[in-house]
Amino acid sequence: MRVPLVAGNWKMFKGVADAVAYAKEFRALAKDLTAVELVIAPPFTAIHGVADALRNSGIATAGQDCYWEKDGAFTGAISAPMLKEAGAALVILGHSERRRVFGDTDADVSRKIHAAYAAGLAPIACIGETLEEREAGRTFEVLDTQLKAALDGLSADQFAQMVIAYEPVWAIGTGRNATPEQAQEAHAHIRGRLRAWLGAEAADKCQILYGGSVKPDNARAILQQPDVDGALVGGASLDPQGFFQIASAAV
Length: 251
Ligand code: PGA
Fold this sequence. Notes:
By secondary structure, this protein is of the alpha/beta class. It has one domain: Aldolase class I (TIM Barrel, Alpha-Beta Barrel), CATH 3.20.20.70. It is built from 12 helices and 8 strands. The protein has helices at residues 16-29, 44-53, 80-86, 96-102, 106-119, 131-135, 139-151, 156-159, 180-198, 200-205, 219-223, 240-250, and strands at 5-9, 37-41, 60-63, 90-93, 122-127, 163-166, 207-211, 230-233. Helix 11 (219-223) links the parallel strand 7 and strand 8 (230-233). Helix 1 packs across helix 12 and helix 7 (139-151) packs across helix 9 (180-198). The longest helix has 19 residues, at 180-198. The chain is globular. 2-phosphoglycolic acid is lined by residues 9, 167, 172-173, 211-214, 232-236.
């Protein structure tokens, strides 16, 4: 069976001091939570400190994005090898805020995914439809396009490291989560595509996370769905107690 994975995406919140204090507190809270994989994605500046505070805890640190070149004259960019050296084991790629605010295209996401693998980072690849796309009945088509781009050129070994996050854009930061049935429907669709494209074994092993207004009080119902293997949590991951409750709901 798939081990659940719960990841906290802090977005552009928390400086180093706050981040390290959180990591220490959360580490103590979660010390007995062994049946779930836990990941924290702080801002770039706090990755090193958080990874250090989580060393040997089993809780992994992730970046929230990376550039696809490994170094060079790219002012403001951070590369995958830099994240790896700072202590990250994973990196979130293709988040809808990156796509919408910073203009990341499917082709960019694909390049970043390949750069992550080259640096030894596991990608958490985000896909999801906007409200407009959902209302136009285009949800599955949009998911297929984004998923195909994320999988482009990957070997079976690489895919085995990939985590997929289904994040309907209309549910992110809005307080309006997908219903458990809507989440399950999208996750089952994604797994069906993985099965068709990559085979049953690879599809059945892949962790598919739901993200979008996951909170302590709705986490259990969403996480209970058969094809929901965990959560990517934004706002509610900023409080260690709340994040711990969500992680506990995944067990
Ligand atoms: P939210 O964000 O939980 O604040 O809706 C989820 C995400 O963006 O990953």
